[in-house]
Design a protein that fits this description.
The chain contains 17 helices and no strands. With 287 residues, it is mostly helical. The radius of gyration is 19 Å and the shape is globular. It holds the Pfam family HDOD. Keywords: Membrane, Transmembrane, Transmembrane helix. This is HDOD domain-containing protein.
């Protein structure tokens, strides 16, 4: 196998070729960064509304089942009032980034349509599970979960472009397609979830995004202001890990253990609600 240092250097270099954020998003980020707490919502509305495509995508996402609104959101102003300026900004960036990639996850032995369905399913689950417990938390988590597997997309593209896809798949097959995180660590020096922090910095996401992702491996010591977010992300990552040959029973029992550990560490999720919102394919393993 090529040296990890060489692969990692190439991977970091490849970030220069990632799609840039559109001018509208850059204007939005610049305005919010320079005005601090003195933000005029009418100016935010103007910046977003000047871009018909971003406006349409924002309203489509705001009216999706993820956010659970009972009546249609028809204007950018409505979306900003109901969801908050930061959440709207993060939604716009997450939606743009997610749709900017030509997705081919064949280096992981995954079917691309199945992979995209899984990404949708994990976002659908976080919305269904958390929305009733804590709307503010849910609105923060949805854009992060939308991009939770972005690292796999970037890694796959990198592997294909550097003719390493067959080598990666061969090593994965030798391990019977289990534990992709361990192979990523061996191959790239970093796992796809941890790599998200680098991608989030690249696109100037909020610090809370970067802090949550960076804390997932050390959730017990995560700062109090992001501990619940980080535990929720760990649970979703465990349940919806995209292995070809997946041990559902292990994933469900591990997620259940994380919830119990969270309670010991002062983060109390509604266990009955969690179980009720689990997809049917998981529930049988809790009996």
């Amino acid at each position: 196998m090529e040296r990890i240092e060489n692969i990692n250097d190439k991977l970091i270099e490849s970030l220069e070729h990632l799609p840039p954020l559109p001018q509208t998003v850059q204007k939005l980020q610049s305005y919010m960064a320079t005005h601090g707490s003195d933000i005029d919502i009418n100016e935010i509305v103007r910046i977003i509304s000047d871009d018909p495509l971003i406006t349409a995508n924002l309203l489509h996402l705001a009216n999706s089942p993820f956010y659970g609104f009972s009546s249609e959101i028809k204007t950018v102003n409505q979306a900003l009032v109901l969801l908050g300026i930061n959440n709207v900004k993060n939604m716009i960036i997450a939606d743009y980034v997610k749709n900017s990639f030509k997705i081919d996850v064949s280096p992981y032995g995954l079917n691309t349509n199945d992979f995209l369905n899984l990404c949708h399913e994990q976002t659908e689950f976080i919305a269904s599970w958390i929305l009733e417990e804590d709307k503010k938390l849910c609105y923060t988590l949805i854009p992060i979960v939308m991009l939770l597997r972005l690292g796999i997309m970037v890694f796959s593209s990198f592997l294909i472009q550097n003719n390493l896809d067959k080598k990666f798949l061969l090593h994965l097959s030798k391990n019977n397609y289990y534990n992709i995180l361990a192979l990523e660590k061996e191959f790239f020096g970093v796992e796809h979830v941890a790599f998200l922090a680098t991608l989030f910095k690249r696109w100037n996401f909020d610090d809370i995004f970067i802090e949550c992702i960076s804390s997932m491996d050390y959730v017990r010591s995560a700062s109090a202001n992001i501990k619940k977010e980080t535990y929720a992300l760990c649970i979703v990552e465990t349940l919806f890990s995209p292995e070809v040959k997946k041990d559902y029973e292990f994933c469900v029992k591990r997620a259940y253990q994380i919830i119990k550990e969270a309670k010991i560490n002062g983060v109390d999720f509604n266990l009955e609600n969690f179980i009720a919102k689990l997809p049917h394919k998981f529930k049988k393993y809790l009996k």
